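User: For a benchmark we're assembling, each entry needs the component sequences followed by a predicted structure for the full assembly. Here are entry 17's components. Please fill in the structure.
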Amino acid sequence: QKEVEQNSGPLSVPEGAIASLNCTYSDRGSQSFFWYRQYSGKSPELIMSIYSNGDKEDGRFTAQLNKASQYVSLLIRDSQPSDSATYLCAVNMFSGGYNKLIFGAGTRLAVHP
Amino acid sequence: ETGVTQSPTHLIKTRGQQVTLRCSSQSGHNTVSWYQQALGQGPQFIFQYYREEENGRGNFPPRFSGLQFPNYSSELNVNALELDDSALYLCASSLASGSGETQYFGPGTRLLVL
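Assistant: Structure for entry 17:
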């Protein structure tokens, strides 16, 4: 079992729709979760961080966390063509005095006009 | 812009050569982590430097080594390059090494090994 799993996609949604991206993780002790957006040929850009169970909203983005189910999701409302990118789910693993991010392989999102 | 810079942006090397990649962390950040991202994959943790000491390492061979300087900038060195080392190398800085600290990525260095 991979430590962080995401559907590779592509997830294709029409402009204006809600895009739903999902992620599961294996380490029950993880406390910090991040969503990064990565455009082709660019580096990851932080979109959201979430630490507590429930929803966290920031503009058109909502992150959802369920630690009991080891599940994190990202909702993008009113999707725009500019949202077309790969979305990386990252889980912070802290041990031995340092933290490292464990990434999923990413979900490719395509928003079509 | 995250304030994290990396150089060079692109690099072409041949098998067996050595390479040094550089990273300047965001102002006030004392922790630098390095990641390797192969095509179509998520970034893989290489190692982390905190106050000039390596304090964590992923599953990478010893030919991957690093340094952190008093100004918290960092270098990644790779010896005896192999074809599979071709990847995007990412540097991320964070405020501290504690749990939950957000890591901010630089633009990356794309390395091609021929």
